[in-house]
Design goal:
Blueprint (H helix, E strand, L loop, with lengths): L1 H19 L4 H21 L3 H21 L1
Helix pairs in contact: 1-2, 2-3
């Protein structure tokens, strides 16, 4: 059980730090949420390949939406 809680703590803390590093409240919240998803991908697959792909797709979608709005 302790190992599970250590993983949960690690995922949450990594996501929070990922959000803080974006230095914007709005971007920080969405980055933290994305960070949780990316951490879960890694914990389940033990590979960063899916994370790189998911991060690229996410950034492309956000960039595309920003271009449509502005």
């Amino acid at each position: 059980a302790l190992r599970k809680w250590n993983a949960v703590f690690s995922v949450v803390m990594t996501a929070v730090l990922f959000g803080i590093l974006h230095m914007s409240v709005v971007q920080g919240i969405s980055a933290a949420a994305a960070g949780i998803v990316l951490c879960i991908f890694y914990v389940r697959r033990k590979s960063v390949g899916l994370n790189i792909l998911a991060h690229s797709i996410y950034n492309s979608m956000v960039f595309g939406l920003a271009m449509l709005i502005y």
